[in-house]
Amino acid sequence: CEILSSLPLQMSLYFNVYFFPFWWLITVAILYLKYPVLSDYYKFILVTIMILVSLTELIRLYLGYVGNLLEKVPELAGFWLLTLLPQLPVILFLLFNEGLKIHSLERAVHIVFAAFLSFQVVAAFFTLKRMVNTLAARFRLTEFHRLEEQRPGPGIYSPATGSSS
């Protein structure tokens, strides 16, 4: 029984669990400070992003832990998709959109968060690939053994040939 979970991915998830509240507090504090000077549509966008990122991150980290540690492909695939689609583009938007009047501390925590997400996308992809290939090989071997057990052995009368082997 080969272990399919990824230690680098798990370490990244572990540190991300502790970094996310730190990122959230700094982002909310800086949003509170710059909120009066932002335009109305950026106010709406940033509040929506904070709600979206908060909810998605909790689900994403749970799926990552379960998918990686318990070697469950659907959960790990969900983690990979949630990392790739909503989280990474949103953090890159927060990092590179100059209309948001980005503070230097905010930029620093966004860079660290984007680095976590980028690493996790790559690590989860290769872990998923290895898990799927190994589980597919196990399935093929199980099916092969099941078919061999159903096949009549030597010396047993075979109705197809009309004689015993």
UniProtKB/TrEMBL annotation:
* One GO CC term on file: ciliary transition zone
UniProt-annotated location(s): Cell projection, Cilium membrane
At the top level of its lineage, which domain of life is listed? Answer: Eukaryota
Q: Which UniProt keywords apply?
A: Cell membrane, Cell projection, Cilium, Cilium biogenesis/degradation, Membrane, Transmembrane, Transmembrane helix
Entry's transmembrane regions: 13-32, 44-65, 77-96, 108-128
**GO biological process entries:** non-motile cilium assembly
The primary site where this protein sits is: membrane
What InterPro entries would the database entry show? Uncharacterised_TM-17
The membrane-topology field of this record reads: Multi-pass membrane protein
How does this polypeptide assemble, per the annotation?
Part of the tectonic-like complex (also named B9 complex).
Q: Per its UniProt record, what PANTHER family does this chain match? A: GEO07735P1-RELATED-RELATED, TRANSMEMBRANE PROTEIN 17
Report the family membership. Answer: Belongs to the TMEM17 family.
| The protein, known as | TMM17 protein
Question: Which source organism does the UniProt entry give?
Answer: Dicrurus megarhynchus
